[in-house]
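User: Modeling request: complex.
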Amino acid sequence: VGGRLIRVTPEELAKHNTPEDCWMAINGAVYNISHYCEFHPGGIAEIMKGAGKDGTRLFNEVHRWVNYDSMLKKCLVGKLVTESIFKS
Ligand code: HEM
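Assistant: Request completed. Predicted assembly structure:
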């Protein structure tokens, strides 16, 4: 229980961009939605538009009222980091 959360760079996020291995960032939180994709009411093609990316804008454009955080609690991978750790 309570797996460790990691810091995810955009580069790492981008590697997970297929329906079988799909991560998405929403409001700074990164989720592994691989098991959710096939149940998405909007279809796989739609949700894949945000695959391996920061899907916040798309998500909010379509359904900002959807409580993704409670739906995807168990799919949380970590936190999206945008600044390089090598920069001051
Ligand atoms: C519909 C969840 C990401 C596009 C829905 C609905 C849920 C949902 C619960 C049904 C909403 C309702 O009927 O009121 C999620 C979750 C996402 C996600 C948890 C993130 C992990 C996305 C993304 C897109 C998208 C990135 C890209 C455009 C749509 C569309 C519908 C929809 C177009 C409407 C389907 C319809 O009305 O027939 N989604 N979604 N979703 N979603 Fe998502």
